[in-house]
Amino acid sequence: MKKKISILIVAVMCLLLILTACKKDEEAGNEENSNYDEFVGIDEDENGVPDWQEREIELIYANRFYGENDEANPMVLNIEKFMDEYPNITVVRDRQFTGDNDDFSELEMLTARSIEGSLPDIFYSPLAAEAYDREFTLDLTPYIESDPDAEWIPDNARSLMQSYDGEEIYGVPWMSVGQFPAVNLTLLKENNIAIPSYDWTFEDYENLRNEVAKLTPNNPIFPGSIDFSQLGPHYFDSIPNGWKGYNSETGKFDFANSTNFGAYFERFAREAKQGLHFYDLSEEERVKKVGNLGWAWGDGLEAVGNIWLYALSGDVNEIKGKRGIEIDVYPMPIAPEGGSTKIHAYYDTLSLSSSLADDPVKAEAAFQLLKWLTYSEEGLKAKWALIDEYTGLPEDAPLRAEDRLLDFIQGWPITNNPDILQEHPLVKGFPEDSELAIYNFDAFKNEAFQQQLSDPIPYPRHLPAVANVYSNLNTWELMHKIRDEGVRYSDIATEWDEMLNEQLEEYLRQYNNQ
């Protein structure tokens, strides 16, 4: 009996300890969430409905993308879906920002509006670092950190959303547009060369090109290439970020430590000497070999090419549709030892006005619109559903999905949530009897490729000095010096690092003195 009582006492004590621990965890969680109570879920009348869903709110939206005509602008049409979902919110497009302005002009327009005290509530952030420095942007940290859906935002997009000083989240990308490989299946089949699988490696890629290179001297065809010039230091040597040699951990350019990238460029320069690159031929050699053709990839003369996601519509229509060349898009080959398999991309970002800090209810409504346009499941599905609405319309209709598919898709979303990615139009594909069936590529169903597209290496627009130096940097010059002057990569990499890092430091000195 005593033994049974002892066991019972121990069990009760254990249960009490567990309940106490759970209560502490719950209290800690509540305490952590309470840090954002003044920003998120405000419900002053305590009726269980957040105030941003009840109060009549008008939001001013400023973005030039996809055209001035709202009725033919897929992003504006998706905003209308948001207003249908939340009828208490009215979104008005700011007409000053609908024209085709460049990023620098748009930054000055925002500056003028800031001085006037009339910044748009939600706007395209043209030069992210400068927009943050000029205090245009609302800190989105409370919204992102308290949103479970934001946990699906991939690491590289999340790092880009962070201001360069780490103080705030200045905006959210509504899309990334990456560059990925493509393969000319027609050329391979006609020359009895094996078609690679989607899980190909860098060695497979090189072997494929070597097979084509054997035929090049006597045929008007070329191996072609994946453009490693921009991402090479990351792909071959795992330099953090590594876009055009910039090391995001050290804050310096780091070509000297990109030795595998250097070896690749030296091989590539030797190929140029052998006449294996279409664009390295003189005009006379080119005409003699291929006639008047001038776009090697589009003319079907290269085995491997590159496609930017934003240009997918035009490239596929022209190459596959008009020219009848069978191509397939591919994931990045698995990087060689010492490297990291990623693609590179540009992100376009939306920010909220810093003036919204004075009205937290309106700020939350603006964030919900921002989320709808960027990474929310509801918003993405609403956007993609527009494709069905605008498919099969007369050819003279102001907006047709068949003509502007990528304006509806708007790049790749910044989420690696598999449930959402399965709904992506390029993943789902199109009916075989549709004009859009030309965009059916099995590669988009490949999960590894989906993750590459969701988490590419971002062009660092949020780092002012790096973005400035990039404007003066052409990594192909490295290969050209090796090709034309016979120098080794190791002879010039350190020189390039010194030059670029001096430019970084000089720019930062000027930037910090402004």
TrEMBL record:
Which domain of life does the UniProt lineage start with? Bacteria
Q: What Gene3D superfamilies would the database entry show?
A: Periplasmic binding protein-like II
Its keywords, alphabetically, are: Signal
PROSITE patterns tied to this protein: PROKAR_LIPOPROTEIN (PS51257)
Give the signal sequence positions.
Answer: 1-23
Keyword Iron-sulfur in annotation:
no
Q: Which PANTHER family match?
A: ARABINOSE-BINDING PROTEIN-RELATED
Write the protein's name. Answer: ABC transporter substrate-binding protein
